[in-house]
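Figure 2 data, in text form.
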Amino acid sequence: KVSGSRVKKIVDSSEDVGLNTSLSLDGSGKVHISYYDDATKDLKYATNVSGSWIIETVDSEGSVGACTSLALDSSGKVHISYYDATNRDLKYATNASDSWVRKTVDSGGDVGRYTSLAVESSDKVHISYYDNTNRDLKYARYARKR
């Protein structure tokens, strides 16, 4: 049995938003959420690090942001893997350089659905995802340059 009180907050109340969410907590207990905005077809990111909710559009080039997965690195920087439905690619975004940088990780067919991302202690990013063309489970590793 779980005890305690439940607290519910509306983070983003724009139309048809909040699909495919992924959540991580930083060392201070602040919340980081990546999600898909179905109305605008964008990848969005929300955090309460400043004390109030801040929402950013991470990628808006086509229909992007489905199947999102988020993790934080040792510096508290955000890393997100996600599916680009327009190009049928696996994409990756990070704010490690203090602004959002987006990269295509795999573009070989219809790839990038159902992503799962993890960051190891040395800040290497690992992504598993589904290759719909070949019906395979795939894996990618990305080592960020410092």
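Caption note: The two ends are 46 Å apart (CA to CA).
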